[in-house]
Amino acid sequence: xxxxxxxxxxxxxxxKPYDYDYGNRQGNQNAxxxxxxxxxxxxxxxxxxxxxWLKNKYPTLQDTDQxxxxxxxxxxxxxxxxxREDNQExxxxxxxxxxxxxxxxxxxxxxxxKNFGPKSDGSLTHPHMQIIGLYHKDGYRDIxxxxxxxxxxxxxxxVEMNLSAYPVQGYQEVNILTQDNTNLxxxxxxxxxxxxxxxxVLSHGVDSYNLFFxxxxxxxxxxxxxxxxxxxSPYFVGYKISQVDDSxxxxxxxxxxxxxxxxxxxx
Length: 267
Hints:
Layout (H helix, E strand, L loop, with lengths): L9 H4 L30 E5 L2 E5 L8 E7 L13 H19 L6 E8 L11 E7 L15 E7 L2 E6 L9 E5 L5 H17 L8 E8 L4 E8 L5 H6 L7 H15 L6
């Protein structure tokens, strides 16, 4: 059973530009934002308007192929603030890039995720996602179907939203699933609503979250999991034991989320 950690190349990491101060890993905070200087970007794989998919200039993880997806030209942009149409196009573009790597046969697994805010382990404010090919590691080894199940918020066609009963970390994790990678506009709308809920309602608003994207149904569908980032509980840090709120609280939270989301999106 492969329990080897990913190896971080500190000599590369200390050269990275950083907006957030992480103590002895703060890197180069005076370098400016590389994603704003579009004319100087290199190793670009694909572009669609403001959206750019390119090779990561600072590949800090050994035995991986690291890529970046720049979401927007707006340095302060976020999924929660984009127009509905821009967010829909972003999610379609991201899924296309992810599938291109995932279907290439070059990697044992491919990870797609987004950091937002100072507690998310992000380095730059400028909105971006990461798509990373792991050559010899199954990044989904400890993730199972139960992690995508929970208290139903609602459904629309093949798209479902729920509040996780079996979170990866805890406490409240929002799952948005498209079972067959169709109805992507609705899928994207619910991801946006979930991010807005995190930032404005959950725990009176959180300043950090992650998006994680998982292939489901043998790759025919995709789950987006939104995890609010607080300081992790000692049970997770020390023992990898996730925590979840009690059932009554989760049911109440699911109803509150449904009320926040609904505008004819869910049934």
